[in-house]
UniProtKB/TrEMBL annotation:
Entries under InterPro entries matching the protein: Aim32/Apd1-like, Thioredoxin-like_sf
Residues that span the membrane, as ranges: 328-348
Keyword flag Protein biosynthesis: no
Name the UniProt record assigns to this protein: Uncharacterized protein
Keywords attached to this entry: Membrane, Transmembrane, Transmembrane helix
Pfam family, one: Suc_Fer-like
Entry keyword annotation includes Membrane: yes
Domain of life: Eukaryota
CDD domains: TRX_Fd_Sucrase
Chain spans, region Disordered: 236-269
Compositionally biased residues, Basic and acidic residues: 242-269
Length: 352
C-alpha cells in the first residue's frame, strides 16, 4: 500500500507547482485521451517509491514487457501492461476484464505465462488462478517519472482509503499505486475497474481528479457503475463506444467541446510502436492497431447493388422505361402515317 507519510515530505512549493491547484488543471479536454485496448495486466513489483523513471526496464517488468512485444502478433486482443506496488506480493499479475489473479510470476515463468494466458487464452499451467472480487482503483503515483503524479497520487490514495473506511468498503474496494499510465498533465490520474450499470466489468480512466472528487467517485462510479463525465478520459474496450460518449463532453467551465482530435487520429492512422512499449505512453506494451476503413468503403460501393437487389426493383424500373420508350416511338410512327394519308387524299380530291 502507498505510504501516507510521504505526503509530509512534499514541500509547499511543489504542492503549488505540481499539485491540484497548478495552472494547467482543467486546461484540456479529457474525453478521448485513452487509446483503444481490450485487456489490462497489472504486475506487482516493489514499492512505488523505489521505481526508477523507466520501471518497465527493471527486472521482471522488463522481461514481461519484452515478451509481450515479441509475441504481439500472436496475442489476439490489444493488451496493456502497467506496474503496481507489490511489497510482499511481488510477481502477482492481475488481469482485467477477466478479473483473474496469478500469484508469484518469476523470471523463468514469463514465456510460459504469455503463451498460456495471453496467446492461447488458457489458465497458466504453472500457476494458481484466483478469481478477483470487488472494485479496483489504480492511482498513478510514479513520482520519479513525473512530479505531478508524485504529488497528486499519494494524496488521492490517502483520501480514497479514508473514504473507503468510512463507508465500510475495505473488503470491497482495493486501492493501489501504479506506474505511469500516460497523460502526466492530467494528474491526478486513476483507473477504476468495477461493474457498470449493466453488470459488465469496465475500466474507466479519470483525470484532473482531486481529493474533493473522491466521495463522488465512490458513490457514483463504484456504487452505481455510472461515469462521471467531467473527469472521464476514456474506457477499456471502448474504441468505438467511447468515441460516441465523448462527442459532447464539457470542460468544467461549461464550454462544449468536440471529441478529441487525437482520438480520431488513432482510428484513421496506423499507430506507431512506442519506445515505452505502450500506446498510452505507459509501461509495457499494447498491440494497438487502427480499425480498417476498407469495410466501410466496400459497403458504400455495394449500396446501389443492394438496393437494386430488393424485390427486383431495378429490373422492373428498367422494363417500364423500355416499354414506355417503345410505345412512344410506335405512336409517333402512327401519327406520321395518318398525316401522310391525309395529305395524299387532299391532293387526290383537288386533282379530281
Amino acid at each position: 500500500m502507498a505510504d501516507p507519510s510521504n505526503l509530509s515530505a512534499v514541500s509547499s512549493e511543489d504542492v503549488a507547482k505540481f499539485g491540484f491547484t497548478r495552472d494547467e488543471m482543467y486546461s484540456s479536454n479529457l474525453a478521448g485521451t485513452v487509446n483503444p485496448y481490450d485487456r489490462h495486466l497489472f504486475l506487482r513489483h516493489k514499492s512505488y517509491n523505489d521505481w526508477a523513471s523507466r520501471v518497465e526496464e527493471d527486472g521482471l517488468p522488463n522481461l514481461l514487457s519484452s515478451a509481450l512485444k515479441s509475441r504481439k502478433n500472436d496475442i489476439p486482443v490489444k493488451t496493456l501492461l502497467t506496474v503496481i506496488e507489490g511489497a510482499e506480493s511481488d510477481g502477482d499479475v492481475l488481469v482485467f476484464p477477466e478479473m483473474i489473479k496469478y500469484k508469484g510470476l518469476a523470471d523463468s515463468d514469463v514465456d510460459g505465462f504469455v503463451e498460456d494466458v495471453l496467446v492461447n487464452g488458457k489458465p497458466w499451467a504453472s500457476g494458481v488462478q484466483e478469481t478477483l472480487t470487488g472494485s479496483y482503483i489504480f492511482v498513478c503515483a510514479h513520482g520519479n517519472r513525473d512530479k505531478r503524479c508524485g504529488v497528486c497520487g499519494p494524496a488521492l490514495i490517502q483520501k480514497l482509503n479514508v473514504e473507503i473506511e468510512l463507508r465500510g468498503l475495505k473488503d470491497q474496494v482495493f486501492v493501489s499505486a501504479c506506474s505511469h499510465i500516460g497523460g502526466h498533465k492530467y494528474a491526478g490520474n486513476l483507473i477504476i475497474f468495477n461493474l457498470d450499470s449493466e453488470g459488465k466489468i469496465t475500466g474507466n480512466w479519470y483525470g484532473y481528479v482531486t481529493p474533493e472528487d473522491v466521495p463522488e467517485l465512490l458513490d457514483q462510479q463504484i456504487a452505481k457503475g455510472e461515469i462521471i463525465q467531467r473527469l472521464w478520459r476514456g474506457q477499456m474496450g471502448a474504441s468505438t463506444e467511447g468515441g460516441d460518449k465523448t462527442d459532447e463532453q464539457k470542460l468544467p467551465n461549461g464550454t462544449e467541446v468536440k471529441e478529441n482530435e487525437k482520438h480520431e487520429e488513432t482510428t484513421t492512422q496506423k499507430t506507431k510502436e512506442n519506445v515505452d512499449g505502450c500506446c498510452q505512453g505507459a509501461n509495457g506494451f499494447t498491440c494497438c492497431m487502427t480499425a480498417s476503413l476498407e469495410a466501410n468503403e466496400k459497403e458504400k460501393s455495394e449500396e446501389p447493388r443492394e438496393v437494386c437487389g430488393k424485390i427486383g426493383m431495378c429490373k422492373l424500373t428498367s422494363w417500364v422505361e423500355s416499354w414506355e420508350q417503345h410505345h412512344v416511338l410506335t405512336a409517333a410512327a402512327v401519327v406520321g402515317v395518318v398525316a401522310t394519308v391525309a395529305v395524299a387524299y387532299s391532293y387526290y380530291r383537288r386533282s379530281g
